[in-house]
């Protein structure tokens, strides 16, 4: 086993089990591109500031670019015995350039190196996840446009409550996803400050130019405090929190998909390409994708608890506990991308069973509020109208009829305010169309929501 980069202080080789326990390259190796990106910026600054010669700087930059090209082409494999991706790249650079390669680490520490790598990596991941969420929003909007007049029951307590449309229901998730996008954007803004040059914790005695490295790497500015720059992972916690909320929204949507495609609801049918069968029951068509999303939501939430627990008792500055940040946040990012990528085409290909939605709406007395409002508009106090309507619903249940089919004579036994026009007032389509308040389920109101959502996606509002 080769000596560690830090081996000068020690008289013995590290125990093999300790080395394996300490190593992080198995999971931080994915940051090789960002590690090299940060090192190129650092080497550029060292040369421009005269900390190393311009010739050495250019040679290091050339060597780093060659290493990146070799990794990406497959000509260079990551060494699983390396301590981490930072040591692997530096060792490979030194092997290729000799003493020149050893100059790269001047005026920096692995503490600020890993901090900048992780911010660069997660910044890219946030951008990718955001694009996936936007595609999901576009998909939902596309379905909503087709169903602005598809009447279905809205629920409270999982009991049929009031009539809405499928488009109105779907657009509720669009609003949730927009807030998820905003949270991701806010996290990216707060995260976009450069810790490179903070050193181990106390900066450096070299006359570096941290503004230059910050600009080269596309950060807003260098971090103000070197101790803070290397000792916090609040951006990992914040990102995991934002992604936990995103997954919670996907999980709630998934739960409804699971119910809707059951025989008890039968509001939708999933495409065969996005369902699975049973090993013993040939009739089964299982919504496994949505069930997995529910399960993976717990996993993502668990990673959030891991990160919070990891940080809660750490004194400043860096502690090895913080190595646990990457496995947790990487797992979260990977699973969120997998879930959104799978959920979107599943949603796009599902078949909506409009008649079943309409029939469920008709059987749930979800127009009872509209019946009460009918009486209120004729001058009756709401509480009296509420009581009369409740009595009529009880009568309908007893007789096995609905408010739409209850004879007018039965209505008029309760009050002479009822006339034949009550049937127009409680027609389900009419009930939906009359709910014109801003944000409501009427086709016109939902079309406004759709238009605003499309403008928001384009960045116009």
What are its keywords?
461 residues, mainly alpha, two-stranded antiparallel ribbon, two-stranded parallel ribbon, 20 helices
How would you explain this protein's 3D organization?
The protein has 461 residues and is mostly helical. It has helices at residues 16-22, 25-28, 32-48, 54-73, 85-97, 99-102, 110-145, 166-191, 210-216, 226-231, 234-260, 288-311, 324-349, 354-362, 368-377, 382-399, 408-414, 422-426, 428-434, 443-457, and strands at residues 151-156, 159-165, 193-194, 221-222, 268-269, 351-352. Strand 1 (151-156) and strand 2 (159-165) form a beta hairpin. The radius of gyration is 31 Å and the shape is elongated. The model has no long low-confidence stretch (mean pLDDT 94).
Topology of this structure?
Blueprint lengths: L15 H7 L2 H4 L3 H17 L5 H20 L11 H13 L1 H4 L7 H36 L5 E6 L2 E7 H26 L1 E2 L15 H7 L4 E2 L3 H6 L2 H27 L7 E2 L18 H24 L12 H26 L1 E2 L1 H9 L5 H10 L4 H18 L8 H7 L7 H5 L1 H7 L8 H15 L4
Parallel strand pairs: 3-4
Antiparallel strand pairs: 1-2, 5-6
Helix pairs in contact: 3-4, 3-7, 3-9, 4-5, 7-8, 7-13, 7-20, 8-11, 8-20, 11-12, 11-13, 12-13, 15-16
